[in-house]
Input
Amino acid sequence: MNWKIVRSIIPIIALCAFFYYTKSMQPDYTSKNPVLTTNASELFWRFQMNEANELINQVVQIDGEVTGFDSILVILNNSVICSPEKGKKIQPRIGENINIKGRCISYDDLLMELRLDHVILVDKN
Output
């Protein structure tokens, strides 16, 4: 009887260990140094000319004018769509210039938009 209990608990322990291990493997993009620092128009132009494919899944720092936002997303220069880091809020005003850092995740040439995630505000020094 005791062996049946132990045998049923071992997979649960293994699952918990696996979950903890995979959760700790997720990188912290907010603490990484950017591979490129530029403005939103320049970064978007690079993707339009197919010169920035190596920037996918890389951290970049850009500045740009806020042209739209909602409760989840911030849009810079009508083309760069930014999704903030979980637990962080970005509350800009339309027309405000902001400096952000985030990971490039995709460029859609049909919709003409570049997407960033794990975005945080960076102080202008």
Summary: Residues 5 and 40 are 59 Å apart (CA to CA). Residues 2-24 form the longest helix (23 residues). DSSP finds two helices and six strands in the chain.
